[in-house]
Write a structure and sequence with these properties.
single chain; 374 residues; Spore Coat Polysaccharide Biosynthesis Protein SpsA, Chain A; 7-stranded mixed sheet; 7 strands; 10% strand; binds guanosine-5'-diphosphate; binds magnesium ion
């Protein structure tokens, strides 16, 4: 079995040597390489280079100067650059004990599955290393929610949010993955029906350093879930709905302090046009930003479009009511719906249009990479 161990790292210098030591101890006699995909802002790359020099097995470093897709993006680049057909993905902080890997390999070796998931939540596994009861509850709750949204694809997977798994690369369609943030296994399993097995493990405490999980990662995860299940348009609609509510709230607040209603409507619209753009940038179209030029150009297009739309929609509404005698609220709903569709098409095809064709995936990983083999 050709084995590549893919380890995403973000400021994990203090864990690198211990990870390699424990891998070597457990995998004695197994041929493998280790691919670190590193987005660190500290000296972690130097630590990895140093450790690679003394390592018995090949250790490669892919340092990304301009990270795309966060942790999930790093994993995809690592899998793409890996030379083995089987890729073992694990965290670099030793919360995923290397000693479980032989069990994962043994299960995969039976030849009837595409992915073997190391699970905290099947019997025999634990999640003791999850910091605090709040994180444990959030993890449990999001697992249940996720499984409910993909009952078929995640059937038989008790831990779709784990970052510890062994996957057969030929079973993946790497181009179809849209990694955003932490939950890369979910992305892989939700895209395509894979044959899956599980092995329990004890999620350990971190060896050194601190967690990079955050509230923002949580919001990213919810967007990812919405997009995977209902597509980009629904995430766009969610942002639009939030914008409409914010618009009304701002208008109400301004009127309450004595601002005239037309001015209140204009100010509220301009504010929500800007906040909606930011939500689209960082959530809905986050995976398309890197290829679609400068943010200020996208903002200019989006801002212009939304203002023109507002200026056109009101007269159209007037014409519709006068010509067809539809109730005005119904007519307004029709114009809003039409505007929504046009706005979505405009943003997906114009604002976030790729400026240049994406380079071939294989080179994308290596051009920005700084690799060493030992
Ligand atoms: N390359 C890369 N690795 C990341 C990023 N964020 C987190 N990681 C790594 O992903 C693994 C899991 O992250 P961690 O902070 O431990 O999350 P937690 O286990 O959920 O608390 C660790 O090895 C991190 O160094 C990122 O943006 N890029
Ligand atoms: Mg961790």
């Amino acid at each position: 079995m050709d084995l590549s161990i893919v380890v995403p790292t973000f400021n994990e210098g203090a864990n690198v040597r211990e990870l390699l030591r424990r891998l070597a101890a457990t995998l004695d006699g197994t041929a493998y390489e280790v691919v670190f995909v590193d987005d660190s802002t500290d000296d972690t790359p130097d630590v990895i280079r140093g450790a690679a020099e003394t390592s018995e097995v090949p250790v490669r470093l892919l340092h990304r100067e301009r990270p795309v897709g966060g942790l999930g993006g790093a994993v995809v680049e690592g899998v793409r650059a890996a030379s083995g057909d089987w890729c073992l993905v694990m965290d670099g902080d030793l919360q995923h004990p290397p000693e479980v890997i032989p069990e994962l390999l043994e299960r995969a070796g039976r030849g009837d599955v595409d992915v073997v998931v190391a699970s905290r939540y099947m019997s025999g596994g634990t999640s003791k290393g999850l910091a605090g009861s709040v994180r444990t509850a959030v993890s449990r709750l999001s697992t249940v929610l996720t499984k409910a949204m993909f009952p078929r694809k995640l059937h038989g997977c008790s831990d779709p949010m784990t970052g510890f798994f062994l996957v057969h690369r030929p079973a993946l369609e790497l181009e179809t993955l849209r990694p955003r943030g932490f939950k890369i296994l979910l992305e892989i399993l939700a895209r395509r029906q894979l044959r899956l097995a599980e092995v329990p493990f004890d999620f350990a405490e971190r060896y050194a350093g601190r967690s990079k999980a955050s509230f923002t990662q949580g919001v990213r995860f919810l967007t990812q879930l919405t997009m995977l299940r209902f597509g980009r348009m629904s995430a766009f609609a969610l942002v639009g709905g939030f914008g409409a509510l914010a618009n009304l709230a701002i208008m109400w607040a301004l009127i309450a302090v004595g601002v005239e209603y037309v001015w209140a409507a204009i100010v509220a619209s301009e504010i929500t046009i800007v906040t909606n753009f930011l939500l689209l940038e960082y959530l809905v179209f986050a995976d398309m930003r890197a290829d679609s030029g400068l943010m200020r150009h996208r903002f200019a297009k989006s801002f212009t479009f939304n203002n023109i739309e507002a200026v056109i929609r009101i007269p159209v509404l007037w014409v519709l009511v006068e010509a067809t005698h539809l109730p005005s609220v119904l007519a307004a709903a029709i114009t809003l719906l039409a505007a929504f569709v046009v706005r979505f098409v405009f943003h997906a095809l114009v604002v976030y249009a790729p400026r240049k064709r994406r380079p071939e995936p294989a080179t994308a990983a290596t051009v920005s990479a700084d690799e060493i083999a030992a």
